[in-house]
Structure formats: structure tokens, C-alpha cells
Design a protein that fits this description.
Layout (H helix, E strand, L loop, with lengths): L1 E7 L5 H15 L6 E11 L2 E10 L4 E8 L2 H18 L1 H10 L6 E9 L17 E12 L1 H11 L3 E6 L6 E6 L5 E4 L6
Parallel strand pairs: 1-2, 6-7
Antiparallel strand pairs: 2-3, 3-4, 5-6, 7-8, 8-9
Helix pairs in contact: 1-2
């Protein structure tokens, strides 16, 4: 398991790193799906410490949580408790997912872009209809079943997830959280 524990403009001591490693190992030891990567980033915002934690599991799923507290250890412990709650909630589904999948989740590379917003005034006409690209990055699109995609979206706390449906040879699918609380699924391969 690979750990990356860092701080944004603050020093992270060896004692905190040891605490993070031992707590993460204890927490994920209770659940299926061994972690492959653990990313923990600490930062200071006014009088509070913020902790953002992301764990990539061998099953292809990602669990993430963040918390803010006045103590740096308490911030990590709160984020860790949130992740444990997520894993506990999905424990049965994680076991089923791990048992069904003989091969690791396949990831496809794709380009990801951040586009500039409308600017100060939305009343102004843009000079061109071509959007301005602010940043270009690489992203990975997993091959999952629809159930796994919904679980991944909920574990990540994301409003939308793009994935390749492993039941179909081609095409990209999308699951998203609807305003009414339900989950929407876009499958372009079944369009008539």
C-alpha cells in the first residue's frame, strides 16, 4: 500500500504520519477490498485544520472524505470516521463486488478539460462561441457495471460519474444524482 501524506503550507510531523497509517490500516482491515493508494492532505484555514482523504481500493472503488476541526488529529479522525461509515454502509456490496470480479477494474485514459466561466457579466456577448480552455488534464474512465458505478459515485460523494459499461463493448455511460434524490443513468447504446 502506498501512502502520500502531505500538508499545504504546513509541516506534517512523523507522529501524525504514523497516526494516519495506523488508523487507516485498522479501519480498512475490517472491510474487503485492500487499499492500494492512500492520499491524505492537511491544510489550515483560519483557525481550523482541514483534512482531505482519498483511498483507492483494489476493487477499483475510491472512498473519500474531508473534515475540519480545530485540532489536526481531530480533523483526520473525523475524516477517517466518515470513510469508515461509508465503508460500513457498503460492506455487503463491497464483498459481493469483490467476489464477482475476477479481474481488476479496467481503466481507459481520456482527456479532461477545465473551461473558463462566463466572466463578470453574463449580458456581454462572447467574442467567439469556442470556449477558452483553462487547464487540460488526463483522467481515467473505469469499466464498471451500472451497480458498481452507482456505488462508486455514492462512495465518492460525486454528483456524476462517467464510466464504460462492462456489459457493452463500446460507449460511455453516465450515472448522476437527480434533483428528486433518485439516480439517473444515461445509456446511449439503448437509444431508439
Amino acid at each position: 500500500m502506498r501512502y502520500q501524506i502531505s500538508g499545504k503550507q504546513i509541516d506534517i510531523g512523523e507522529a501524525l504520519q504514523t497516526h494516519v497509517r495506523s488508523e487507516v490500516e485498522e479501519m480498512v482491515g475490517k472491510y474487503p477490498g485492500r487499499p492500494t493508494d492512500v492520499l491524505v492532505v492537511f491544510s489550515k484555514e483560519a483557525h481550523e485544520f482541514a483534512c482531505e482523504t482519498v483511498i483507492h481500493l483494489s476493487t477499483g472503488l475510491t472512498v473519500q472524505a474531508s473534515a475540519k476541526e480545530t485540532d489536526i488529529y481531530a480533523a483526520f479522525d473525523s475524516a477517517n470516521a466518515k470513510m469508515e461509515k461509508q465503508l460500513r454502509r457498503y460492506k455487503r456490496r463491497l464483498k459481493d463486488h469483490h467476489r464477482e470480479r475476477a479481474q481488476p477494474v479496467e481503466l481507459s485514459d481520456a482527456a479532461s478539460y477545465i473551461l473558463a466561466g462566463a466572466g463578470d457579466s453574463e449580458l456581454e456577448e462572447p467574442e467567439t462561441l469556442q470556449p477558452m480552455i483553462v487547464a487540460e488534464m488526463q483522467t481515467r474512465i473505469p469499466s464498471l457495471s451500472v451497480g458498481e458505478a452507482v456505488m462508486q459515485m455514492e462512495l465518492a460523494g460525486a454528483p456524476v460519474l462517467v464510466f464504460r459499461n462492462e456489459k457493452q463493448a463500446t460507449g460511455v455511460n453516465v450515472v448522476y444524482r437527480r434533483d428528486d434524490g433518485n439516480i439517473g443513468w444515461i445509456d446511449p447504446n439503448t437509444a431508439t
